[in-house]
Design brief:
The complex is a heterotrimer of chains A (542), B (339) and C (346). Chain B has 339 residues and is α/β, with parallel strands linked by helices. In chain B, 44% of the residues lie in helices and 16% in strands. The radius of gyration of chain B is 22 Å and the shape is globular. Classes of the chains: A mainly alpha (542), B alpha/beta (339), C alpha+beta (346). Chains in contact: A-B, A-C. Chain B: It comes from Motilimonas cestriensis.
Chain lengths: 542, 339, 346
């Protein structure tokens, strides 16, 4: 329905959309500048190795996540395995674990000096590392296992929902036409879930591409490291921006895959009535095996690392419970809170703009403000610094031109840079959450309120805002959690004397002193659990 | 919507207020490549003596880039570096200014400061070769060049070749032996590596203890730190510390340095801090707490460090070595040292 | 040999009894309809036959092969059953042809083709074989589902509310069509519905279900003419209940006067019953001195439904003539085979 919106609303929607996409443009612009011989030198020497490692990492994580998530999702959707009620949400828990923390813990455990190898040595009488072979966790393979074990729930969630939404009668039909449950899975369930699986895998691929801390810790040279090394080592922002642009291309490809799959999903998902009697019959030993499989995923990605953290935190509590720790926690909560609220406000602004201002292109501000999500934090930080530095200099020059005293680094040297970085990266989450709850409001409500004499603004206040308040809450929560976890952007953008819990923990992890960062890690994880609990509640109620 | 705009502006202004610029109190802002806990005791002493507050931003990477970007608006007064190449980079990028100070000139011998007074070394640190006590013993005859020798096949451990400490060592090799020979050497070393370059210098010593390798590269002060760490003392006890190239040009020595930024807003306090850092109190802490070699003549090294004995250091000027840095980085890529 | 024998089947779900003591037999080439309101257990029984639900006790035999008995449950994929679901359950990612050969993909390619062609011809969809399900109308989708089931050459066909998603305009035509297809293919079928019109049009044999048990089994006309309980009588089309006292083998006395039966009713004399009279068995005549007053008229086309008030009771009548409200009429009951129920205890 067409509504005449005030000019200020229209302009602010577009302005915010453009502002949030500016860092991306800045990187591409910077990447298109000639970078001299350096980029050529990199292409001639190491670049292909970086690319190969990145591709291998993404492929490896994808395949392993698939092998973990798909069986789990199918068991959860189709079978009555022991402990199903708990597993259903326990399988989401690994999402709350930052990969680099898990990496730190497993390194502690599986390293030469760690308990596993020590026990093996004691048992078998080995002395040094030369006496036996043990897989090195600090390797590409190790990174794949660690990253997959915390990212697979993305795929699990999407695939499970897709399996549940598939009409039960399809599976029953296949069975009645003489196919075993396993055959029916391969021929019906899996092909039908393909769009959802593609979405899940592309999400996982993007997260993997963006990972900095884990690959750095494991000395796996991927493109994120290439950006960092080129920028820091060679001091060339141009070449770094060029590599970043390369990564953006990968991201765009993944996004296209995701969009394409979602579109296809609409054709396929013709849900015809839920039924409760969907459970597949399994023999008891099969059920226990399936349960064991699912629980081992939970243990690997959450229970074990989390209990280790609790153990460390208890041991080092007095060392960890410092004024510093409290200060950093407050910092983190404050900044994450500000970002969450702002992101939600932006999402409401552009979301309602899209709804009310029915015109070609009215969805562009929302799309623009979501672009930053896919940009890896390291790359994004560069994209923030470019325009913010320019703004600072222009502003100061201007003020000094009129004889005043410039305010200094108002943008790039304060928390503003950090907030902007988080906003660019996480507004997409808020836009998604708010948009989906706006879409749930039937258009007839708009028509009713308008015919009952309400102006668009009044309608928004009295009808839309109350109806989307739940979506807004979800948006705030999700952005809050992501902002708490974000590491690479914070490492580069944080102001003087400023640590977030994530940078604080990472410092300990990279120095292999994870014991002392355990308490802070626990805080990050516990806060990250909140949305999972809410999410699983809403799934259960469904 | 009005309400939310008001809310947003309140939030924004509170953010600004809480981070508002460096107020007029006496202070000095430091960008530090050195771990802050290493220098905090020294800074605390400085504040105690002068009443000037010290703000530190520590980062392993990116401070120079940040300084460059901030330009004349930068709040930073001093940059603390951990190796010569960073110090030279600061000069090359025109981010620092000369300091004429009698105190600095008195405290720091000429070879440890920039002829143009744009950087000053505060300590020196040696790039040692550690060897397994059990399997190799002390190696007094060893040269860096020998690490490419086939006899070390599968026996060498090191951190990333791109780490500034290694880059500086490789630069010194280029300065001494030329580019082509150094490339050959790097290929040789790479072929001898027991595992992909990873971790930090301490990890390599740990790896020797655990039997992954027999030799590693590492700075001298790490051994001191490990010997004083309950958990790591066992690693340290598994290795001997060696000073390579004693029969020829001498062992490669790096510095940790300080520079005054070009647009330092608190210049007076900053110079005061520089002088403090080069003076007895601070130099002593560097020596005692951090096991480095103080630059100020007359300040004694720690007992432990002196027990490792006298040694001859590489005579090639640091500025010459720093010049080879781009070449070193290029060679590292060409031989895919880290990959 | 019977196509399907169900004996003493019990079924429970979450501790609740859904089916209790069900028994019914289906002969070869016969179509059985399970009729009942929602929640009566008809779909549950269908799924139990298909093996999609476990039984608590009882036995099911399909074509002489025991598929369920105590301690034995043949998995659905081994039962040779064709099932048509309410939503047709066509595989959305496969063409019509792929759907049809899904159940016979272990046969040689050539045979798959001929058999698919046969069944698609049978359901008149040969030219649609390369289309996807979402490109077909509801009726076409349903015929694909039937073709898919027939290609599998099932021993028994199960249809779960197959016509509920079909437009009422074409429903009866489609029912006739599909009944013919099944008869031509010579398959026995069990079919579930809540609509008596569908049941009458489709079934050879009818089983009326209520609260998990079978109330009555028989041919459609048997059940319509001789309902065993009030429930069956009501379910197969409403009517009027009024008290009746037996006069003799062929006559009873009612508030509408003496009613004559065309067959002997074998009830003892002078006892009281409730007589059930269908609307079309009452005839009306305009009579100013009549006892009834027309309270409402519903025009149905060929006939009208007329509600007549007489002595506190409203009678539902279906007649060919036209009446207007407030008209005064006389009511009479045509002679027919009487339906008498025992008096309901208050």
């Amino acid at each position: 329905m067409y509504s005449r919106l005030s000019l200020s609303w229209i302009t602010s929607s577009w302005a915010i959309g453009l502002l949030l996409v500016f860092p991306v443009i800045a990187i591409i612009y910077q990447g298109l500048q000639p970078a001299g011989d350096l980029f050529q030198h990199l292409m001639d020497t190491v670049m292909w190795d970086y690319i190969r490692n990145t591709v291998l990492l993404i492929l490896g994580v994808g395949v392993l996540s698939f092998a973990m998530a798909i069986p789990a999702a199918w068991f959860m959707a189709m079978c009555d395995i022991p402990g199903r009620k708990y597993l259903q949400w326990a399988l989401m828990l690994p999402l709350a674990m930052p990969a680099y923390i898990v990496a730190g813990i497993y390194t502690e455990l599986l390293d030469f000096a760690g308990p596993v190898q020590s026990v093996l040595r004691d048992l078998l009488g080995w002395q040094t590392a030369r006496d036996y072979w043990f897989p090195n966790i600090r390797s590409l393979g190790g990174a794949i296992v660690i990253i997959a074990s915390v990212l697979f729930p993305y795929l699990y969630l999407l695939a499970r929902t897709s399996f549940l939404e598939q009409s039960v009668t399809l599976m029953q039909s296949a069975q009645l036409l003489g196919k075993t449950p396993l055959q029916a899975f391969w021929r019906i369930s899996l092909p039908l879930a393909r769009p959802a699986i593609a979405v899940g895998l592309s999400l996982i691929a993007m997260e993997t591409l963006a990972d900095f801390a884990t690959v750095n810790f494991f000395a796996v040279n991927t493109l994120t490291r290439a950006v960092f090394d080129t920028w820091q080592g060679y001091g060339s922002l141009h070449a770094a921006a060029k590599i970043s642009t390369l990564m953006l291309v990968v991201v765009v490809l993944l996004l296209a895959l995701e969009r394409f799959s979602r579109r296809k999903q609409k054709v396929f998902q013709k849900n015809m009535g839920q039924e409760s009697a969907r459970l597949l019959q399994m023999k008891p030993w099969q059920q226990w095996l399936a349960a064991l499989f699912c629980w081992s995923l939970v243990v690997l990605g959450f229970l074990f690392p989390f209990s280790m953290l609790i153990y460390f935190a208890a041991q080092y509590f007095t060392d960890s419970w410092t004024t510093e720790f409290i200060e950093f926690s407050l910092n983190t909560f404050f900044i994450a809170g500000v970002v969450a609220v702002l992101a939600c406000l932006i999402a409401i602004l552009v979301g309602l703009f899209r709804r009310l201002h029915v015109q070609r292109g009215s969805d562009i501000p929302a799309r623009l403000s979501s672009m930053g999500y896919a940009v890896p934090g390291t790359v994004l930080a560069i994209g923030i610094l470019i325009p913010f530095g320019w703004l600072d200099h222009s502003l100061n020059d201007l003020i000094e031109h009129f004889g005043g005293k410039g305010p200094g680094l108002l943008f790039s040297g304060t928390m503003l840079a950090l907030i902007a970085g988080y906003l660019v990266r996480f507004t997409a989450i808020a836009v998604g959450a708010v948009e989906s709850s706006i879409n749930k409001i039937p258009p007839s409500l708009d028509m009713v309120s308008r015919t009952l004499g309400h102006s668009p603004v009044k309608m928004v206040r009295k009808v839309h805002i109350p109806l989307i308040s739940k979506g807004c809450f979800t948006a705030i929560l999700l952005v809050f959690i992501e902002s708490m976890k974000e590491l690479p952007a914070a490492l580069i953008l944080r102001p003087f004397n400023f640590e977030t819990l994530a940078t604080y923990v990472y410092q300990f992890v990279s120095d292999e002193m994870i014991e002392q960062g355990a308490l802070a890690a626990i805080v990050i994880i516990l806060v990250g659990l909140v949305p999972l609990i809410i999410l699983s509640r809403s799934i259960e109620q469904h | 919507m009005k309400k939310s705009f008001i809310l947003a502006s309140v939030v924004l202004s509170s953010v600004l207020a809480s981070t508002s610029s460096w107020a007029a109190t006496e202070e000095v802002n430091v960008y530090s490549y050195r771990q802050s806990f290493l220098i905090e005791p020294i800074m605390a002493k400085f504040t105690e003596e002068t009443g000037v507050k010290v703000n530190i931003v520590f980062a392993k990477d990116g401070l120079i880039e940040r300084l460059e970007r901030e330009g004349k608006l930068s709040p930073a007064d001093l940059v603390l570096t951990t190796d010569i190449s960073r110090s030279v980079e600061l000069v090359e990028k025109d981010l620092v200014q000369p300091v004429q100070s009698e105190a600095l000139e008195g405290n720091i011998p000429a070879q440890y400061r920039d002829p143009a007074d744009q950087w000053f070394a505060l300590t020196t640190r040696v790039r040692n070769v550690y060897s397994s006590k059990e399997r190799l013993g002390k190696q007094p005859e060893l040269n860096y060049e020998d690490l490419a020798d086939a006899k070390f096949k599968g026996k060498i451990c090191t951190r990333s070749g791109k780490h500034p400490y290694n880059v500086a060592l490789i630069s010194s090799m280029i300065a001494a032996n030329g580019e082509a020979k150094t490339k050959q050497w790097l290929e040789g070393v790479k072929a001898n590596l027991a595992r992909k370059p990873q971790g930090n210098d301490r990890d390599q010593v740990k790896a020797i203890k655990e039997g992954f390798c027999d030799v590693s590269l590492g700075n001298n002060y790490y051994l001191g730190k490990m010997l004083n760490d309950e958990k790591q003392v066992a690693w340290a006890n598994a290795v001997e510390i060696n000073f390579p190239n004693q029969a020829n040009r001498g062992t490669h020595v790096n510095i940790s340095g300080v520079s005054l930024t070009k647009f330092a807003p608190n210049k007076d306090n900053a110079v005061k801090l520089m002088e403090f850092l080069s003076d007895d109190t601070a130099q002593k802490i560097y020596a005692e707490v951090n096991f480095e070699y103080p630059v100020k003549p007359g300040v004694a090294v720690s007992e432990l460090v002196s027990s490792w004995g006298e040694f001859k250091s590489d005579s090639i000027p640091l500025a010459e070595i720093a010049k080879q840095r781009p070449v070193a980085l290029k060679l590292l890529d060409e031989v895919k040292f880290d990959l | 040999m019977s196509a399907l024998v169900i004996s003493n089947v019990h079924c429970s779900y979450n501790g609740l009894d859904i089916l209790s003591d069900m028994s019914v037999t289906l002969e070869d080439n016969e179509i059985l309809c399970l009729l009942g309101s929602s929640g009566c257990g008809k779909t549950t029984l269908l799924k139990a036959i298909a093996g999609l639900l476990p039984l608590k006790s009882g036995e099911i035999t399909i074509n002489g092969k025991v598929v369920n008995k105590t301690g034995f449950h043949l998995p659905p994929e081994q039962r040779k059953i064709g099932m048509i679901f309410q939503d047709y359950a066509l595989f959305p990612h496969m063409t019509v042809m792929d759907n049809v050969v899904f159940g016979i993909d272990e046969l040689p390619k050539k045979e798959q083709q001929t058999r698919a062609q046969q069944v698609l011809d049978l359901v008149n969809l040969s030219e649609f074989s390369e289309r996807y399900p979402h490109q077909l109308s509801g009726g076409q989708q349903q015929r694909v589902a039937i073709a898919r089931a027939l290609a599998y050459q099932p021993d028994l066909m199960l249809l779960d509310e197959p016509f509920s998603n079909i437009d009422s305009q074409v429903r009866l035509k489609l029912i006739a069509e599909i009944r013919q297809i099944l008869k031509k293919a010579g398959v026995s079928a069990v079919f579930v519905t809540h609509s008596k019109e569908e049941a009458f049009a489709f079934a050879d044999k009818l089983a009326v279900l209520d609260q998990g048990s079978i109330v009555q089994v028989g041919t459609p006309d048997e059940l319509y003419l001789r309902p065993a309980t009030r429930f069956v009588a009501d379910f197969l089309g409403g009517g009027n209940y009024l008290p009746a006292t037996v006069i003799d083998e062929h006559h009873v006395n009612t508030p509408l006067g003496r009613v004559c039966s065309t067959v002997a009713h074998h009830k003892s004399d002078a006892t009281s019953y409730d007589i059930f009279i269908r609307p079309q068995q009452i005839s009306l005549t305009a009579n100013d001195a009549g006892a009834g007053v027309v309270s409402d008229v519903q025009f149905l086309g060929a006939s009208s439904k007329v509600y007549v008030k007489l002595a506190q009771q409203e009678f539902e009548c279906q007649v060919a003539q036209h009446f207007t409200t407030q008209q005064v009429v006389d009511l009479a009951v045509e002679p027919h085979e009487l339906i008498l129920f025992d008096k309901q205890s208050a």
